[in-house]
Amino acid sequence: MRTTIRLIALAVSLSLAVAGCATTSGGTGGQTTSVSCDDPGLSGAEKQLCLDNKEFNNTVLGGALMGGAIGGGAATLGCLAARESPLKCALIGIAVGAVIGAADGYATAKTQEASKQNVRTIDLVTEDISRDNEKMASALKNSEAVMRENQNRLAAAEQQLKTGRISLKQAQAEKAKAESGKKQIETMLASMEEARKTYGEAQQKTGQTSPAFSKEMRDMEKQIAQMRQQRDALNQAITTSRIG
């Protein structure tokens, strides 16, 4: 009996770990969203954007990880009930948990929660999107500040280099800081796009929809487009900079 309990616990914990590995990278480039916000080189706006991203990921990924753990544990129990090898069952639970955590974890967790509350799954998903849209609005303000301060940084560095007040090396250091600011925006943008994908997949899996869900998704798309424009504007300033 103790061995069975240990194996179920192992499957659940490792399902969480593997699911976490599958979901902590985001965006089209697969870049990690795990960033240190304590870097002294970050400006105030960049640090706040970094914190926004961490909070955002903790919220969105929580459902996926929990769904993976539930799925992994359930698979282990089902396998043991069929009198299969305990070790084989633990491995099956780990594999199932990883797949569910990566693809279906959020929808699974929300469906179970909705069943307990006797409400529609799509309504709970819509509540999550609404909360995330509020967080995105705050992140957009911070990303705009990051964009503008780095555009100004580049312009100032170019002028100072032109008048000989700073060296080329110093100007290049300022350009590197602007590139770091762009990466902060890209990281947050990747998280937002991953959230949109998660919610879209959840809606497809439930087969449910509502006017409120559609509205919140449109609002999310709009905010993602706005942050993408900020990223592109800063990228243009960097690529057209006369600092070699």
TrEMBL record:
Protein's UniProt keywords contain Zinc-finger: no
Transmembrane segments: 61-82, 89-109
Keyword Membrane: yes
Coiled coil: 140-237
UniProtKB keywords: Coiled coil, Membrane, Signal, Transmembrane, Transmembrane helix
Annotated signal sequence range: 1-24
Protein name: Glycine zipper domain-containing protein
Source organism of the structure: Skermanella stibiiresistens SB22
